[in-house]
Amino acid sequence: MESFTFFAPTRLLFGPGKLNELGDQELPGKRALLVTTGGKSVKANGYLARVEAQLDRAGVEHVLFDRIEPNPLRDTVNAGGLDGACGTLRFRARAGRRLRYGRLQGHLRGGGQPRA
User: Fold this and answer.
1) Contact between 52 and 71 (Cβ < 8 Å)
2) Secondary structure of the chain as H, E, C letters
3) CB 111 within 8 A of CB 55
4) 111 — phi, psi (to 5°)?
5) How does pLDDT run across 14-54, given as a tens digit for each residue?
């Protein structure tokens, strides 16, 4: 595997009313990738619209990728790159492509080391 350095500072806003504070935060960039499953609840309950409104208020351009699935196929991961919208997702996709799915699953079950 290639050598790399990964730095991901994280700030969590948690608790009642905290979503309303998102637009007041000093955010690390001007573009955001919103990632959700294909389920309907985040939209139906209004959470997605509230997040989008807070990002709009903060002047952050955003794009939605709502095709996350359990054990995603390579095509789904590749589609998540969205023309460079999220370097982390691209990094994870590249790292994942280096391991063959069957060998990785065997490793997770204790069947040996995955091979590149």
Assistant:
1) no
2) CCCCCCCCCCCCCCCCCHHHHHHHCCCCCCEEEEEEECCCHHHHCCHHHHHHHHHHHCCCEEEEEEEECCCCCHHHHHHCCHHHCCHHHHHHHHHHHCCCHHHHHHHHCCCCCCCC
3) no
4) -95, 20
5) 999 999 999 999 888 899 989 888 788 999 999 999 999 99
